[in-house]
Structure formats: structure tokens, C-alpha cells
Amino acid sequence: MSGIFSLNGKRALVTGANTGIGQAIAISLAEAGAEVICAGRSSLDETVGMIEKAGGKAKGLKLDLADPMAGAPVFEDNGPVDILINNAGIIRRADAIDFTEEDWDAVMDVNLKAIFFLCQSFARSVLARSGEGKIVNIASLLSFQGGIRVPSYTASKSGLAGLTKLLANEWAAKGINVNAIAPGYISTNNTEALRADESRNKAILERIPAGRWGDASDIGGAAVFLSSPAAKYVHGAILNVDGGWLAR
After folding, report:
1. What are phi and psi of 234, to 5 degrees?
2. CA-to-CA distance for 13 and 4, rounded, in angstroms?
3. 8 A C-beta contact, residue 66 and residue 41
4. 159: Cβ–Cβ under 8 A, 6 or more apart, which residues?
């Protein structure tokens, strides 16, 4: 790929790259020319293999963000990285009246605390070499809506939207773009049960103006844009890739 959407010569790190949205983002970045470090707590062999089979460059990195400080040394140990995609996240479900401290802390640690310290470590690395960098956080429709039965997930994704804007305010003038993508209902393993439930699937589709579930590759394309020179003047944005859900 050439032109303003090209990532030739860039190195990217994608967390949660083993499946679903993270895998699609990793593949899309590689197709745009980036060398991709695919990070996750489970095997990355499939994602790396798919990228290499298509002629791209990738490697796997075991990274479990249940320890929110686990990513701190990543940018020292793996050479210069130009693009950070914070996709890894978890969710716990229970009525708010019954929600436990353990489930609250587990989600907040992975979805918010770990992301802040990964961003901090990445920015320190970029600034130390007087370089430029792109950060893309994966937010959620629940960065804008409340949802039900997912209090810590909603809090973490709302917090991530705010954090994205704060970091953009601090780092935009220093050569680091910080933005986020808010995916809508995407067809992945995580949403298989919803799609298999006839009544829930029908209700969801009726609310989406595009009339279909999103593909993980739809998020990959948005990530390429925000990681590319085409988005050099985009700072603190949260790009909704939701088939029009929030516009309804």
C-alpha cells in the first residue's frame, strides 16, 4: 500500500490479537504495510500465521494484562514501536446489586489501568527517541450508553473515552495522536450467543440502520485510518463504527 493510508516501515503492537476484533486489526495493519507484534495471553500462532501467509511480517508476544503493569517493559524489550492498539479487554456480568469487588477490580485492571500504563510506557518510548506515535484505544458503545448488568465494563469504557481525550490533550503537540474506536455489534466469537438467540438478534438488527452485524474487518479498516498519516490532525476522537446504532 502507498499514499496517505500506508503503514510501510511502521511497527505496531496490538493487544488481544489472538481472535476477533484484535485479530482483524492486526491483519489489517499488516495489509497496510506495518510489521505487527501480536500480543495476548493465549496463543498468537493463528494470527501470526495468517499475516505471514499473506506476505506480511508479524510475531507473537505473550502478554497477560490481568497484571496491569505487565506491559510496562514491552517497549524496551521489543524495539521501537510506532503504533499501539489497545484492544484487550474483559467483561463480567451480574446485576449491580450483586456485583462483587473482585469482578469490579478484574475488569478495571485490564480495561483501564493496564491501558493507561501501556500508553504511558509507549509515550515515554516515542518521546525518548523524538519520534511520532499513534495510539488507538478500543472503546465501546457503552462509552456512551449505560447498558445493564455490566457495571465495571461500562465504567471502564466510559473512563477509557475520557482517558483518550486527556492523553490527546497532553500529547497532541508532542507528535502522538491518541484516538479511540467504539465498535458496535460485531460478528465475533464473543457475540455468537447473541446472534444465535432469535429474538435478541432480531431486536439488535432492527436497531442498526445498516441492517447487519458488523464484520471485525470493519474495525480493522478504522484502525488503519487512525494509525495512518491520513489521520495526522485527528486527536481525541472516538470513532463510532456501529452501522449507525448511536444515530438511531
Report:
1. -105, 115
2. 20
3. yes
4. 112
Closest CA to 244 of 212, 210, 214, 219: 210
Query: Dihedrals φ, ψ of 108, to 5°?
Result: -65, -35
**122, 153, 185, 213: which one is catalytic?**
153
User: How confident is the model over 198-226, as a mean pLDDT?
Assistant: 96
Listed in sequence order, the DSSP H helices in 32-150 are 45-53, 74-77, 101-108, 114-128
| CATH no. for 11-240 | 3.40.50.720
Q: Rounded distance, CA 49 to CA 44, Å?
A: 8
The whole-model pTM stands at 0.97
Across all residues in the chain, what is the average pLDDT? 96
Which whole number is the average pLDDT over 84-108? 97
The predicted-structure confidence for 115-145, as pLDDT tens digits, reads as follows: 999 999 999 999 999 999 999 999 999 999 9
Q: Give the C-alpha separation, 187 to 129, whole Å.
A: 39
The answer to whether residue 233 is catalytic is no
